[in-house]
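Lab meeting, action items carried over

1. Structure of the two-component assembly. Owner: GW. Status: complete.
Input record:
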Amino acid sequence: MISKRVFPWLDERLGLTTIYKTTLDRMVPKVNWWFTLGSATLFLFVMQLVTGIMLSVYYVPSPDKAYDSIEYIMTGVAFGWLIRGIHHWGATLMVITVFIHMLRVFFYAAYKYPREITWTTGVFLLLATLGMGFTGYLLPWYQNAYCATPAGTSIAGRVPRIGDFILRALRGGSDLSAVTLARFFSAHIWMLPAVIIALIGVHLYLVIRLGISSVPKEND
Amino acid sequence: MARSSNVTRRGFITSVMAFAGSIMGVVVGLPIIGYLISPALNGAKTDAWVPVGKLDNYPPNVPTQFSFTRTKVNGWEKTVNSYSVYVLRGDGDKIKVLSTVCTHLGCRVSYSKDSDTYACPCHDARFSREGVVLSGPPPRPMDQYETKMDNGTLFIRVLAS
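Predicted assembly:
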């Protein structure tokens, strides 16, 4: 077998066994199924990443073509319905898993010392995930999207003093327009994913560095 | 379990995971490949028989212009192409349908009754009523469409570009 010679050669240089041992063979306390939700969320995020990249092959973020391009994905492209379906339902599912993951950490008090930064990055990951949902919802440019975005952005508009400025910054003007669609698209495929990937990096590093907390007992 | 010593628990789980993983990879990977190459598979050239009206509409021995448009759909975009042809009804059932696109560089030729020729405005090429080059740079006669009659209506075969 060639892998018997190649693998040790690579391992010596790349330290693959060390990576494997620290990430996957690490010691964990005896826990329950609620502790799988972080991994489930990570899996869903990767799915969203893959299907999202695939959707960008055909989607056009312009008011006169956005809906047509999605209709083309749904009816004209092989497996387009599947890719978009996974992205659509995966988004909803990811919000749910993120939220239950947060509740698990909260009720098991796993956010306490020394895991405060894991929790903080998690809070920003939750916000970024909701931001992904909000920006992604506008992109099909159909009636639901066209109604939800003015409502969502006008919530930000209620902030005292600077509300109107925030509103115009979000919409790229006072009304929903082509500029809004373009900046929501940019936020959805570049800015928020970059933030999420960076935060996941820190989050996972800390999970591996600190280990996971065990289920609290009666006297904890 | 006589053979159980051959397969360790760890080895068994590794093989099952590898097998399940490969199936998942194929189930996810094939649709993605199909999704990406889909437009290439649908892009085969199609041709259509376009009706150009009743044959009786065309006077004999006089090239008569007929214009029509065809819509081409590329993904989410529609392109409307306009076509123009000269229908020449000769003696008997002889029908010639000539493309107005000059065979030199693609300008549109037009028929002039006075000289009984088609003239191209770009390089002053001339074609006879039958489409033969009389003068100028065109390398070949005017292009002809394939024709067919169906119930008194003349059809031409248009190859989608």
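2. GW to write a short summary for the group page. Key points so far: The CA atoms of residues 125 and 200 of chain A lie 8 Å apart. The mean pLDDT of chain A is 94.
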